[in-house]
Amino acid sequence: MPIISSTVMLQKAREHHYAVAAFNVHTLEMLQAVVDAATEMESPLIIQSTVGTVRHLGAKYLVEAATVAANQSSIPIALHLDHCTEFNLIIECIRAGYTSVMIDASMHPYEDNVAITSKVMEIANAAGVNVEAELGKVGGVEDDIVVDEQDALLADPEECLQFVKQTGVLTLAPAIGTAHGIYKGDPHIDFERIEKIAALVDIPLVLHGGSGIPAEQVKRAVALGMSKMNVATELRIAFSDAIKQIFDENPSENDPRKYMIPAKEAVKQLAMQKIGLCGSAGKAGVLQ
Ligand code: 13P
């Protein structure tokens, strides 16, 4: 099937209390690896790219690669633009065929976040494309977006409700204590806050900063109402470490397949673990 909007995919996840894993990919091999993982586990899948990766590979290449993968696979696949602050790039990706976009205006005051998100909503809605927005500020580093620990800000549950009503946004990433990148200690996830937001807001919620969260904490966050989990850093590390190992063993290796194949396999294995934590294995058919 072609790539589809993530709207219904995530609504079903919320309804049935699992999450869809959303994996940031940077190369064709990473894209193939997460598709192989989700296909093997019969799970719905969201392939994500950062703004930096769109600039590196091009939106059309990413859409074509995701479309070929989706057409060859039996699982539902969406293609999502992660953390975008630029209106024009969002339009470029929608025109290229992305089926889901994130407008991240969380660095602006609340009213501006509402206005910017609403503007994107209007266009994306007309194109049948899902929109994710962020409230509060998720700490850490994601591509060019850097939020210092002291500037991270947890989302207010009442404000989440008001934000969803004002913008009509269909997917919300509330900051609940996770951070992008690898945690120095244990993450401080505010589970009570997740529960409160999920009770007030009836749209799918997104767990950012999925790398390095202990398994039990992921499961608890999903059980409380997180319907999408973003994973980026851990996949990059798995991919890079596998390549480094090949070069450690054979510094003169010059056949890309010799290091790309193990790197792809490392990403696939990790993606399968994350899909397992999300509880979405076997849910590929839950779309009607
Ligand atoms: P990690 O890099 O911590 O996995 O976070 C990914 C993310 O939330 C992308 O939006």
Account of the protein in words:
The chain is α/β, with parallel strands linked by helices and 288 residues long. Helices cover 49% and strands 17% of the residues. The protein has a single domain (6-278), classed as TIM Barrel (Alpha-Beta Barrel). The chain has helices spanning 6-15, 28-40, 51-57, 59-72, 87-96, 110-126, 157-167, 191-200, 215-224, 233-249, 256-278; strands spanning 20-24, 45-49, 77-84, 100-103, 130-135, 139-142, 145-147, 171-174, 179-180, 205-207, 226-231. Helix 2 (28-40) packs parallel to helix 4 (59-72), helix 2 (28-40) packs across helix 11 (256-278) and helix 7 (157-167) runs parallel beside helix 8 (191-200). The longest helix is centred in the C-terminal third of the chain and has 23 residues, at 256-278.
Give the helices and strands, then pairings.
Blueprint: H1 6-15, E1 20-24, H2 28-40, E2 45-49, H3 51-57, H4 59-72, E3 77-84, H5 87-96, E4 100-103, H6 110-126, E5 130-135, E6 139-142, E7 145-147, H7 157-167, E8 171-174, E9 179-180, H8 191-200, E10 205-207, H9 215-224, E11 226-231, H10 233-249, H11 256-278
This protein binds 1,3-dihydroxyacetonephosphate.
1,3-dihydroxyacetonephosphate (13P) binds next to strand 3, strand 11 and helix 10.
Give a quick rundown of the structure:
The chain is α/β, with parallel strands linked by helices and 288 residues long.
